[in-house]
Amino acid sequence: MSDRPWDDLGDGWRSFAGGRRWRMTPDGIELGPGEGGEGLVRTRGEPISTRNLWADFGPMFLESAGMYGIGADVLCTIAALESAVDPARRSHRNPKSVRYEPGYVSEERSANKVSYGLCQILLSTARGVAGLTPWGKSFFGRETMFDPRVSIILAGAVLRNRWNRHLGDPLLASAMFNAGGVYQSDRNEFHVRTHGEHRLLHTAQWFNDLVAVLRDDELVAVGYRRLFDLPETSRAVA
Known about the structure:
The chain is of the alpha+beta class and 238 residues long.
């Protein structure tokens, strides 16, 4: 019996609990038929936000990728999905993003109800994976988690800590990061629980934008290509 979290459908296609299918290709995530189109779906227009995100924080994504064996492309996609737009710089992401959940009182009393930083990590989660980072539990709080390097390293630690739930698959890694695990749901086409029914479609769009932007960047050594033994592509950068 396979220990992989997805069902193999043949020719690289996979699905979860009978939901919408997808597969990894050298050019990104190819989706089967469904909402938002099929194939190598992308966001509309030029991937300006993606280019800016990598330009602003690329070395940090590479550092975290090297520490935890997570694709830099996956980490960058997580940041794109989680963070808010920087109000001072259009088309850039805000490393000081904050999200409070209902019932938040204080960091001491409700650390599981506030998320900080570029990758929007719950304070309780940050403290829970502290042993996988260069810092101790007491290090984490509002100001330290606003540091984009800290946030990106934390994202790598979270993904590594629950590796067996996603095995490096970008869609399932995104679901795990968002919902705390890979669970069945009937609220979206992929049958994977997420907060927001379009989360996995948006994951594929942002991820594919990033693959196009970084296609010829020899420093990236894109993680999912190694993991799924996919060939490199020689197409030009989008």
